[in-house]
Known about the structure:
By secondary structure, the chain is of the alpha+beta class.
Amino acid sequence: MKKVLSFLSLVLVTLAFVSCSQNSPEGVITKYVADIQAGQYEDAIDLFYFKKNLSDKDKQQYASLFRDKVAKDLDKKGGIKSVEITGTDMAEDGLSANVHYVLKYGDGTSKSETSKVLKVDDQWKIDAGK
């Protein structure tokens, strides 16, 4: 039964990912969560916008720090089971948005989050604030 539920969760996340183009405010958040679920922290870092361009070494360092912090927290919570986008507040100019979502964890808990995303070079990125 546990395997069936895990499989169904994976199917739901995949469907959510496919239904939201990555080149949308909601899609970049969905892709970010999918990368974290898969342990692809370098790919997750590529979804962030940094005011200063990062070198490959900088990206690896951020990914390593991210992996160390996030992986431990997720292990305690049984991993991310799913993400539900609950709303998007688009700026009038269409170049930024706040995406509201709920992360649901394997231990049955959930956490509401909001991320600011920016449209940079016609691609949506998560604002790193740096």
